[in-house]
Amino acid sequence: MRPSELLHPTPQGLYCPPGDFYIDPVASVGRAVVTHGHSDHARSGHGSVLATHETIEIMATRYGEGFTEKRHPVGLGEVVTQNGVSIWLSPAGHVLGSAQAVVEYQGTRIVTTGDYKRRYDPTCASFEPVSCDVLISEATFGLPVFVHPDTAGEARKILRSIEQFPHRAHLIGAYAFGKAQRLICHLREEGYDKPIYIHGAMKRLCELYERLGVELGPLEPATVEKGKGSKERFAGEIVICPPSALQSTWARRFPEPLLSFASGWMRVRQRAKQRGIELPIIMSDHADWNELTDTVREVDPAELWVTHGREDALVRWAELEGRQARALRLVGYEEGEE
């Protein structure tokens, strides 16, 4: 069987005809395999969803009563068969519950990485390379300019800034699922044991992380109440909020707010400047250029299919290495969760 007969792009997402299921579909389908809980990959409205136990919990928390699908939680490495097609999940290292989808049929194996990274993350299982005939790799940061710095060093930048500006509240924009919890854990590992203040939009997901065994330490609501002294108590404190809140009236309630943003896109100075970010924190949940290329070399697939980002550069790199590669050009997957 040719790989394109086992899995190919459609307007709804990657489709497996013999198994009659989609991977991370962007529209409602009968059967969905979901790699992780970010909203551009884990949409509601499908007939059934197969995903890790953690991703199922995350989807239920995010979508509430809107998550009506039949749920098939599976453990990493647990094989499920659908119409003779074997499906199993391997760690992706992206966020809690994230997984690569491995599809096997009639001697052909295709691995879809979903979003992934290779560096240490205290909140989720580390990426594990899986040998395959076809590797479908994301390419969010698929340009040589994107080489992410040491994550612990970025966390220490925040702590040094607090020492320099103890009179200012440090407001850090971080996405509510994945990035916020990872940032909190890295700060804890650098010895920060004081309460960290969180925006109300992060409360439910932080509580879920705790229930799923990820310890976040003392967290407090980032609520500035009326009355003398309420505002001043946030001086020199860390406040984590959704990126959109950084430019809101909510942010201006804090004492001389110092705006920060944790994202791989903070490597691009113009992006930081446009957002008014004083303290850019280059912290990504996606593989950088070196991680992408090292992974392709390690897995060494017969074919590389590239999607979700800077496809052309990674395809060209693969071709120069003598590899067979193509861009899938799937639509509906955004950089917003980064």
TrEMBL record:
<keyword id="KW-0269">Exonuclease</keyword>
<dbReference type="GO" id="GO:0004521">
    <property type="term" value="F:RNA endonuclease activity"/>
</dbReference>
<keyword id="KW-0378">Hydrolase</keyword>
<keyword id="KW-0436">Ligase</keyword>
<dbReference type="InterPro" id="IPR026360">
    <property type="entry name" value="Xnuc_lig_assoc"/>
</dbReference>
<dbReference type="InterPro" id="IPR036866">
    <property type="entry name" value="RibonucZ/Hydroxyglut_hydro"/>
</dbReference>
<dbReference type="GO" id="GO:0016874">
    <property type="term" value="F:ligase activity"/>
</dbReference>
<keyword id="KW-0540">Nuclease</keyword>
<dbReference type="InterPro" id="IPR050698">
    <property type="entry name" value="MBL"/>
</dbReference>
<protein>
    <submittedName>
        <fullName>Ligase-associated DNA damage response exonuclease</fullName>
        <ecNumber>3.1.-.-</ecNumber>
    </submittedName>
</protein>
<dbReference type="GO" id="GO:0004527">
    <property type="term" value="F:exonuclease activity"/>
</dbReference>
